[in-house]
Structures are given as structure tokens and as C-alpha cells.
Amino acid sequence: MRAYELIKETFFRGSYIWIVHVAWLTIYGVYWWLFLPEQPEYGKFVFTWGGFLLPLALSAGILGDDIASGRICVLVTKPFWWGEIYIYRLLGLSLQGAVNLILAAVLAIALHTLTRRGSVEGIGPWLLATWLLFNATAALSTSLSVIVRRTYNSLLLLVVIASGYFIVSMLMGYMGPQAPKGVFVSFVKYFWPPFELLFKFANGDYGKFSLTVGKYSVPKDIACVVHSLTLTVVYSVAGIVLLTRRQFSRERD
Amino acid sequence: MTKRTKTWMIVVGLALALEGWAIYVVGISPERWRPAMVVRDEPAARAVYEAMIQTIRSANTLSYDSVCGDAEGRASFYKVRLAKPGLFRVELLNIPSLKDATLVGDGNDLWLFWSGTRSYLWFDDEAGYEKTKSNRYLKKPVAAGRDSIAEEIARIGIAWYACILDPSTFYGRTSELDPYVDGIRLAGTDKADGEKCDVIEISFLKAQRTQHLWISRQDHLPRRIKEILRVADNKIVVEEWSNIRVNDALPRQTFTWSPPADWKPWSVPQPQDLLIQSGQDAPDFELSTLDGNKVKLSDYRGKVVWLYLWRCGSPQCRQELPHLQKWYEKNRNDDLVVFGVNSTDDKRILQAFLRENPVTFPVVHDCSSFARKAVQDYGDKTATMPMSCIIDRQGKVVDAWLGYEGNHQRAMNALEKAGLRVTTDN
Predict the structure, then answer these.
(1) N or C: less crowded end of chain A, CB within 10 Å?
(2) The whole model's pTM is what?
(3) What are the φ/ψ torsions at residue B227 (nearest 5 degrees)?
(4) Which of B8, B24, B25 to mutate to test the interface with A (most CBs of A within 10 A)?
(5) Is A244 helix (H, G, I), strand (E, B) or coil?
(6) How do residues A157-183 score in pLDDT, each as one tens digit?
(7) Domain ranges of chain B
(8) Distance between CA atoms of B112 and B279, rounded to whole angstroms?
């Protein structure tokens, strides 16, 4: 019951949540209508918008708002482990992501059936990759929300991740194969939300650039899923540790 | 320790192990070489392959677009137009550098030119590049059927990746790897570029190199070619064909080009020209041998050293190595040291090769960046193998050259110049 209440609270914590969902689905629909995309174009579009930008929009101030308003003190006085607040909020986000992506798929299938154009073939792996990326990004943003005021968690994450990828792509673009694959690149590859790995997984690159003949390389694809789930857990554990060690004040922050 | 702590420790340990496995699997190159990767010949698969070659060769004109790329996102886009006799136009664009190049064959000559500034190539230095980066063109005679377009692109280094299937196949040219095909087998069926394809697997040089070809059942032309080169770090390149047209009329002006008035001719140095020169000090190195020991060149002052750089995947090296071993056995003495330096191959492939072709001189196997730098210090910037370098007792280079000349005469001359009496292997 407690879990249900906390998850439900995530869904209904602000009217803007519904605006975000409707806006995202409208964006998917407009993109389809304008470009009639073949796969994997639609998959790539959903991956970027649904896997990275959607969790940022939905998790803005997910804990920071409560901390700033002093409401967190009401929550933590209840007789349960504080970490549960974090876990159920994240679970609520994850469910919202899943629902949004299912609706995105339904929308694409409906538009494909109506227009008889574009393609929805191979949409499944893209949706799975998007959801995994959504979870990792949402966990990172939620953890950041424990220490960053109000809704700045999402903004900060957007700026940091975008800058990091910009630097890496500049390095790779300028230096090509000579680019140093040093600590920074490895850090971005394995410790940041797994954009590149999940993109390759959904795009079939692991099958294309491995010894297999088909589209997928099963061990690498499983490894990608495992890695992204591990990252989600690691980000979450960091957030839970931060949350359970904080002292909260009833005063408005 | 409480039961709960123990349970948590087990859970965390398992999670770490799983994550370790995931990072390893995601990070590693494709599977390492195994003897089972050597393909056995299947007549049905060979028939599919030969039908493809026959279709390409029997066409009067052939045009297609292809993209050759790797998993890191580097790719070379090609627009290939071929006509008989000996006419071609290959337009190439590299991603992400966006440097282009065009090769035109007018039946007599090959012209190479760039629309803007050319890319920085392996033989360039700052001053030379600034002088020649634009308004230059290269012209050289070319013989259809003998000269290779793909090899020319690779030799000059203008593309991230040269075409895997050489466009010169159209003129009847055969690959130097053809005699080293282990076998061809059917690997199933798949769809590529919207076409139902037979997929065949070809292994070369005891699976040191493997190719998968997706060949359309409809027109017998390839739609995708995947090449796996098993060296110290495996490389996979995929070439994908699209917009294929056979026997279309191609306008004659496609295959002609003449340089604008203010453009100047330009030439590319041969790899041989950049090798270390006679009389220079031989750069010192310390590298690992196949059996795990260290070898330092300067420890052999007072002896004449033949440095032989080679790799298993080079047909010339495969030809030369048995002769070199025979010669070494005949001329073995305390004043002569031969080092076979291999800084390219996977250790297991090398060991398997040496089991079949045993040598008694020390084999250095070191694929570290130090080893690669050592090879470059001797001027072998393109890693063209084999490369030989004779070093005298004072540590000076007597002679250095690329390739196998058949009778070791150049080596004999250099060794005699270094003060060693030797006999030929004939």
C-alpha cells in the first residue's frame, strides 16, 4: 500500500507531468507525420527524446522540491526507511517512462497503419534501449535532486552531459583514429548513462561489427542491458546513501 | 559477521562479477582466433561466390555506392562508376573529417584530385603539407586488370577504409590473397539492402582474415561485405553496397578529367623512400620475444644484426620466411644475429603459424606502442611488411629495404659490406 501511494504520488506530483507526457507524444506524432521515418530513424528519435530528455523533464525537482519546501520532513517522520522514498519515486518515474514509450509505439503503429508509410519494423529493441537509458538517466537525476536545489538537478545534468559529449565528439572529430582513448573517454563510456552502448545495441551495431551474421550479437547485447541496469543501481545507491545521511530542516530552503 | 552482512556481500560480489563480465564483453574486440575458425570448402558456397565474380566481370558497366565503416563511426563513402575498357571514376568522402578525393581512370592514366584541401597523409610534414594541400593533382599510368584501385587508395592513405571488394575485380583483377583462401562456406541467409541474400564466409591465411559476403539471390551482386582482420587487436570493417546499376549507359565525360590551368602535378613518395638511410645510427629498442624474454638491440654491438620485420598476414612474408630460415641455418655463426620482429599479429595466430613454419632465429613478438614506435623509427610508416634492415657491428645501418626480392642478393651485399662472409640460399 505504501509503495502504491509513493508511486502514485510520483505520477500526480504536478500537473506539468501530464503536460510533459502529452507534449512528448505530440512531438513523436508530428515527427512521424512530417518525416514518415523508416526504422531506425524513428527509433533514434525516440531514443534521444524519450531516453534522455523525457527523464530530465519528469525528474526535475523530484526530491529537490520537497527538500526546498520542507515537505521532506513530513515524509521522513513516517516509520519507514528513508531510502524507500527514493526507490518508489524512481520506480514511479520508470513506470511513467514505460507507459510513455508504449504509447509512443502505439502511436507509431497507428500512424503507420493509417498512412501505410514509414516503418515500425525493429521498433522493439529501440524501445527497450530507450527505457533502459530512461532509467539510468532518471536515477542519476533523482540522485542529483537530493543535493541540488529545486529543479536544477535536470538542468545541471543536461549541461554536464551535453558538454561532456560535445568535448568527446570534438576530440574524435578532430583527431579521428589518433584520438587518445584515455581515462576521460573510458569514463564517459562506462560511467555516464550508456548512450553509446545502448544506441549500438538497438541499432544492431554489435551484430554488424562482430562475427555474427544476423543483426544482433547476443552476448554483447545482454552485456549492454546488464551494464545499464548496473549503472541504474549504482546511481540509485549513491542517491539513497546521500538521502539517508542528510539532515533536513522544516524551514523553507 | 551477521547473516545479513554476508548476504549483502554475496549480492554485491555477484553484481560486481556480472558488471565485470559486461564491461569485458562490451569492451573486447570480437572473438579471438581459434583453429575452428578456419573454414572448409563447400562447393555450393563456392558456386555462389564464383557467380558473384562472374556477374561483376561480365558486366560492361557497373555503378554502385558503397560505404566502408567501423564500429567507431569512421566511414568512407564511395561513388563507384566502372566501364570497360579500363574506365573508372571513384568519388570518395570520409566521415567525420569530410575530406573528399576523386580518382578518375581514362583508360591510360589515373588522375587523383581533391575538391578542396586534401587530408594530411602518412608521408606529410607540416611544411610539405602547407605547400601541397590544394590545387594539386596526381597522374600516373594505370593498367586495367593489373593495377588495383583499392590498393592505390590504401597506399596513398586517402580513405579511412579502402573498399573491401576491389573495384578492379570488374576488369578481371585477382587479389593477391586468392591463393590463400582456406575455404568458402554457406553461413545462412539474411536480408541486406532490402534483398534476400545468401551469406557466405571465406577464410584466408588459416583464418587470419575472414570475410562474410551477403550476395543477392536476385542479381548475384554483393550487398554487404564484412571483413574481420585478426591481428593483435581485431579489426572489423563493413562495406555496404547500394544503388547498384549494371550495364547502364555512362557518359564518356564521367571518365575524363583535365587539371585546371593553375593546378600543379604532385607525386606521392614510395614507402621505400622514407626508410632509415645507410650510415644512420640504428635506433635502439628493448622488446619482448615470443618466449617472454627481453631483447635489447644495443646488447648486440659487435655483431652484425639482420632485423626482419614481418607479419603472418603478408603473402610476401609467408614466401620469404622459409627461405630466410634455410639461409640462416646455412650461415649461422656467432657474428650474425637475425631477429624476426612481429609487432602486428595475435599471439595464438603467430604460434600456430610458427608450428607449421618453424624458425630457429629469435622471434620478437611485441605489439605494444613501444614496438610500433620502434618500427616507425626505422621509417616503416605504413607498416609495409616485410622490411629488412642490416646493422653493422658499430650499430650503424648498412641498408634497409621493403619486400622480398627472391634471392636475398641485397641482403648478401649488405652483410658483406658489414664485414660478414655469407652464402646465398640458392
Answers:
(1) N
(2) 0.77
(3) -115, 130
(4) B25
(5) helix
(6) 999 888 877 777 776 666 554 455 566
(7) 3-268, 273-417
(8) 36
